[in-house]
Amino acid sequence: MDTRERYAAYAERIEDVSPSYAAWARLLDDRLVALLDEVPEPKRQPELLFAVARRLGADPSDPGALRALGLEARPALVAALASATVQANDPRRLGPVVPLFAALAARVGRPLGLVDAGAAAGLCSIPDRVTLDHRTGNGVVRVRTAPEEPSLHLTVDVSGIELAPADAPMEIAARIALDPNPIDLAGPGAFDRLVEAVPPEATDRTALMREAARATLAAPPVRLLGALPGDLDRALDALPDGAVPVVLTTGTLVYVPGADRQRFVDRVRERGVHWIALERTGILAGVAATLPGDVDAADPDAFATASLDGVAMAVSDPFGVRVRWLRDPNP
């Protein structure tokens, strides 16, 4: 998929959520395509470009603002984009992830040591502080209740295999937030920096992020400056003895070049640690090989694959709010 196709597909996905971002994506012109060609491929993501553009003063309510910025401030935009590590850090991605953590905790029967790779501010480092409801055609079922407050409440539309409620304890003994530029939520302006990656119309999403931020501040991760795959070992080695290591990636690996992505997968296996992921369907060959034949990566509701130790457990929309369970992760 070339740059124009990527942005056209993004516009289709985001139209209902953010008409302003869809307009920016559809107005990508030759100058902007050439600009994006100057930065590494992982830096060409629409969300990243739009967040950087807003940081540099472009107003999403003006459809022509992105083009104008590319014309008037091209060197600044290229430089900012090349070094940007902005991530939306969307806590809704915990929807498909929490049942995997619950199943793993029940299986190992010991406290977990979590390495959240690409953590940004760590809003996805709190699977133990999520109250999760599954909504089906038959109603809403609570599948997990957070034992402590503050917590995050998520409701997910589910289909496929029905998961039973999981009440077994999920203890996380340590949290490491690995990121090229980890964000300290307690710092001034930190939350504002996070939400600049969120479409301006998505006020409900911003509110949910604020809820997740309160829960994260109650159980803050240890921030570690670094990136995949080179700093994975350092993050794992920072976990305490006795904790069962588990690496979490949620929308992280799309920003890692293909060869390094495979090196990360290989290193996880070599270390013998657990790995929970919610990543774009198809970018991980090993995980894709475990998908049933009726999963179409072009389907918006199969945009991402949730996996446990390299085995696909569910597929979802990009935000983790519509989930089709393919396998029961529970022992």
UniProtKB/TrEMBL annotation:
Classification via Pfam families: DUF2332
Name of the protein this chain belongs to: DUF2332 family protein
Source organism (scientific name): Curtobacterium pusillum
